[in-house]
Amino acid sequence: MDKKLKKGISTCILYLLLIIGSIIMILPFYWMIATSLKTSSEVLKMPPMWIPTSWKWSNFAEAWKAAPFARYFLNTVIVTVFSTLGELVTSILAAYAFYRLEFYGKKVIFSILLGTMMIPGEMLLMSNFVTLTQLGWINTYQALIVPWTASAFSIFMFRQYFSTIGDELYYAARIDGSKDFGYLINIILPMSKPMIITIVIIKAIGSWNSFMWPLVVTNSENMRTLSVGLTAFITDTGTNYQLLMAASTFIILPMIIVFLVMQKYIIEGISHAGIKG
Questions:
Q1: What is the spatial distance between Cα 57 and Cα 39, in angstroms, rounded to a whole number?
Q2: Is the Cα torsion angle 237, 242, 245, 251 positive or negative in sign?
Q3: How many CB atoms sit inside 10 A of residue 79's CB?
Q4: pTM, rounded to two decimals
Q5: Residue 254 lies in a domain
Q6: Domain annotation covers residue 101
Q7: Rounded distance, CA 104 to CA 188, Å?
């Protein structure tokens, strides 16, 4: 068989598999959006209706009014913004220390830090809850934000990315009289924009979708985040699946838009982080 023909067949098969995989991934999102626009009778119709006969946009307004989603959105935005900012600050400073500074036990401490990534978060749930109870932070923003302002994964990613920056820049900065902190702020951070955006997106999506921890540390409606509020909404709406899908759509949509717009930075940041380390 001709090499060009063989390569063409392989390419066609690859694209076919990618198309099939894309359809499988997109199908649940399409079904969610389609169901959110159906009437209650169309939702339960068999065989299933893939396209609503009448697009009922009022489902979104009805779902929004059925629960205090404005408060849930506010809580989620506050938690997402401040936990992301906190993680950026702690991760950048720690990563720079492991990348550039020399101190006793640096490699051992970094290895232990990486080892913590293998510990499931569920194992720490009870001990963290007890600690926050003793601090009196249960059902507060501190409980939702402070425990998530540091991440071993983010420290590792920043450290790997910083390692790709040549040492000549550091020595040139020192010759010009710059201190370590000045070098970090004026040279490292501007060059690390792709990694910063990557970590921000990953952290924001994770914080926005977080469920288990907010469920454990909050016990009032005013402190619920979107994921916890959606669970309560499921109980309240019962079989009104069109309202449930409408609520799920406007909860998920912001993060989907953020990911689609910024995905090139995620790819660029992660690809650079693996060059050297």
A1: 10
A2: negative
A3: 23
A4: 0.82
A5: yes
A6: yes
A7: 24
Longest C-alpha distance within the chain, in Å? 75
CA–CA dist 88, 83 (Å, integer): 9
Residue 88 CA to residue 209 CA, distance in Å, equals 19
- The whole domain housing 259 covers 60-273
| Residue bearing tokens 């499921």 | 234
* Nearest alpha carbon to residue 76 among 202, 247, 228, 249: 228
pLDDT of residue 127: 86
What pLDDT, in 10s, does the model give residues 165-196?
A: 877 777 787 777 778 788 888 888 888 888 88
Domain for residue 10, yes or no? no
Looking at residue 140, the DSSP 8-state letter turns out to be S
Alpha carbons within 13 A on the beta-carbon side of 7: 3
Q: What is the CATH number of the domain that holds 255?
A: 1.10.3720.10
As for how many domains the chain has, the answer is 1
d(CA 210, CA 206): 6
Tokens linked to 237: 């709406």
pLDDT of residue 2: 66
The contacts of residue 156 (CB under 8 Å, 6+ apart) are 95, 113, 114, 117
- Among 229, 216, 205, 213, CA closest to 72: 229
Cα–Cα dist 85/77, whole Å: 12
Q: How far apart are CA 116 and CA 225, in angstroms?
A: 27
What whole-number distance in Å separates Cα of residue 207 and Cα of residue 183?
30
Length of the chain measured in residues: 277
Structure tokens at 196: 């910063």
Determine contact, residues 211/84, Cβ cutoff 8 Å. no
Q: Is residue 16 part of a domain?
A: no
Element (H, E) at 14: helix 3-36
Tokens encoding 59: 């489902």
